[in-house]
Please model this.
Amino acid sequence: MGKPVVIGLAGLGTVGQGLVRILAENADWIRRRIGHDILLKRAVVRDLNKPRGVELPEGTVVSDRLMDLVEDPEIEVVCELMGGLSAAEELMRAALAAGKHVVTANKHLLAERGQELFALAGERERCLYYEASCVGGVPVVQALKESLAGNRIVKLTGIMNGTANFILSEMTSNGLDFETALAEAQALGYAEADPSFDIDGIDTAHKLVLLARLAYGQHYPLSELPVRGIRDVSREDIAFAREFGYRLKLIGQVREVDGRLEAGVFPALVKYTFLLARVGGNYNAVRIEGNAVGPIMLHGQGAGDLPTASAVLADIMAIARDARKPNNTGFPENPLPAAPILPPEDAESQYYFRFRVADRPGVMAAITRVMADRDISIAQAIQKGEEGASDVSLVIITHEAPARMVHDALATIDAMDFVTAPTVNYRIL
Ligand code: NAP
Ligand code: HSE
Model:
């Protein structure tokens, strides 16, 4: 048996503790797979007095100084499981500069600073691996980098945030309100330190930037990605969506349209017959369509201690194999070129509109006229009268239309005197 792979761990929170647990539980199996033990030599935390829910291996040194990991010449792999930007970036840069490999679950940092960090790792010929940062335990990074490498990716569509999916599933299936469902997701360890990242679509955006890079070998800047979250989703829209045969999901999507990338994060109505609509709870799924393989689905837990640690451990084991020939982005260029971007207003989609309008003659005619003038064609409609109410919800499902026409039509309609509340709109997959 070869000598142990010596690792240092920054962070003993949800994911760090999951890693410690799985390293102990699967030690024999890991040895059999890679022919080495994995030895946790050091762990670094912020608060040395905080009780930890796991027992560390005998001899592991715990400190509160990140550079202890970098300065220890025996440590070959630094696992960054802290989150956040500046301390994590400083640690990764120092570790790569010191000739160590890095494993991280930090999608936020890689989405913001990935170009520079992958360039540094490339120059130093070190692994910078990040399976856990994209959809937790679901092995989508490796799938895009290796297994699907021969395909041109036509489209990648995913439910990539466990917290948001948990909230929407609880609102849909158990009638929970938004706040209660979010509190449950936080208690279960799914949510980010700042849960607005989960519910405002930002965490999905981070993952999408990384997946777009892996799928297309191009850099789509986070600052240019259109992002909309689920904060405003109401039980009324969930109920209307259900009547039309759809479920509301937070989607991240990137596809190639005439040589340009169209990407975005948005809540969308997904037909209940689609596999993506069946993805419930904290589960995530990514549907990848390749020009040779056709569509495939990867489905599993995108958050939580052990599922995420499973991906971290896979990266450490891959480094034991790939140390001399890192494959960080799946492409030899370093840095990767900028993506040609399709302006979001040119993106075409079907839409769901819920108008809140006065219940009087001519309203439907006025709305449909505005839509017809912009070439937006109606596929289905429902109006539901409410006992004693002077206004009603009017729901329209459209055929495909460009976002620019839809936004113009809604701005025109919302300025009309019969509209009693801003119109709700969602894309439909
Ligand atoms: P967490 O529970 O908040 O744990 C963070 C850990 O990092 C804590 O042990 C904390 O120390 C330590 N830490 C933070 N800043 C530090 C600093 N400056 N120096 C030393 N230690 C520091 O976070 P988590 O949920 O495990 O997430 C960790 C990373 O994994 C994040 O990037 C997150 O986005 C990513 N991720 C999480 C999940 C998930 O399901 N939770 C899934 C996929 C990816 P103290 O304990 O002493 O405060
Ligand atoms: N907060 C994230 C989620 C963790 O809920 O999916 C996994 O990246």
